[in-house]
Amino acid sequence: MVALKPHCGTWVPVGQPHTPIDAAHALTWKNADHPGDWTPVERHFRDGHTETWWAADARLGGYGPDSPCRLVVATTDPATLPEKATWHLATNLPHPNAACTATSPHLPADLAEIVRLYGLRPWIE
Predict the structure, then answer these.
(1) In a 3-state reduction of DSSP, which class is residue 91?
(2) C-alpha–C-alpha distance, residues 108 and 113, integer Å
(3) Residue 2, helix vs strand vs coil
(4) Which residues of 39-68 are buried (b: 16+ CB within 10 A; e: fewer)?
């Protein structure tokens, strides 16, 4: 799992998102009661507090929930996607419902697991 720079573009057909931040903005969001593409994820911190973050599978070029490489966006606020509290993650952990799950050497991971694993990064590095 790696973080992608939000404004680092890729080649895609016209009319499709070109950057991870474009892909995040293409996801639907109305509010917490009607989250659209976003899923609430509870983050647990070392000091004992928890926060609700929001995560979603996005599509960008070859990335997607049904692809061997996924683009997952996690944020504290899907409406504004704050720069310091939004992650754009590429992972080869398959989506639980993807066809590639059967051939992947990795176990499938839901959005909560992706966010949990990437949240460990500061302690590993």
Answers:
(1) strand
(2) 9
(3) strand
(4) bebebeeeeeeeeebbbbbbbbbebbbebe
Report which of 113, 5, 24 is spatially closest to residue 76, judged by C-alpha positions: 24
Residue 17 CA to residue 10 CA, distance in Å, equals 9
Does the pTM surpass 0.70? The reply is yes
Query: Which residue type is seen at 77?
Result: D
Q: Would you call 90 helix, strand, or coil by DSSP?
A: strand
Q: Dump the DSSP string for 24-59.
A: HHTS---BTTB-TT-EEEEEE-TTS-EEEEEEEEE-
Please name the residues in contact with 71: beta carbons below 8 A apart, sequence gap of 6 or more.
4, 20, 23, 57, 58, 59, 60, 63, 64, 88, 89, 90
Q: In the 3-class helix/strand/coil scheme, how is 52-89 assigned residue by residue?
A: EEEEEEECECCECCCCCCEEEEEECCCCCCCHHHEEEE
**Per-residue pLDDT tens digits for 101-119:** 888 888 899 999 999 999 9
Residue 37: its pLDDT value, please? 98
Question: What is the β-pairing status of strands 70-75 and 86-91?
Answer: antiparallel
